[in-house]
Amino acid sequence: MGGLDARPGEHIGMVGFFPPLVKRVTARGARLTVPERRADLAGPREGFDITLDAAELAGCTQLPCTSTARYPNALDQFVKHELKCRCYLRYCDDFVLVAESAAQLANWQARIARFLAERLLL
């Protein structure tokens, strides 16, 4: 993920829980802390902690903001206002667009790929 370079013993904070990145960080021996608003999700996990206290991020050397926290709204706005898709459903990082034709869907797919690469740097 981008320039994230987790090293053994380093303390990484992650705004927005993203399991593939969790595996990458913990596999390198870094300590990982993920802030969360929901109390039922908080607590220690295998190799990382989910906390209700954002102050626990104070000592982090890196603090990536993952797509789960930052990007969904940007994508929602792009689909609604630029693609003008009238039938759009998103759940977490999965989404469905419905169009009048396969050609329209292919066009939207190309535009979304460009948007993700150029504007969100994904």
What attributes does this structure have?
single chain; 2 domains; two-stranded antiparallel ribbon; 122 residues; elongated; four-stranded mixed β-sheet; alpha/beta
Range of helix content: 25-40%
The mean pLDDT is 84
What does the radius of gyration come to?
Answer: 17 Å
Tell the overall outline. elongated
Task: Report the major sheet.
Answer: 4 strands, mixed
Any chance you could write out the topology, listing elements then pairs?
Layout: E1 11-13, H1 19-27, E2 31-35, E3 43-45, E4 48-51, H2 67-83, E5 87-91, E6 94-98, H3 102-118
Parallel strand pairs: 1-2, 2-4
Antiparallel strand pairs: 3-4, 5-6
Helix pairs in contact: 2-3
What does the model show?
The chain is of the alpha/beta class and 122 residues long. The chain has two domains: 11-57, no CATH class; 69-118, no CATH class. 35% of the residues lie in helices and 20% in strands. It has a four-stranded mixed beta sheet, covered by helices on one side. Helix 2 (67-83) crosses helix 3 (102-118).
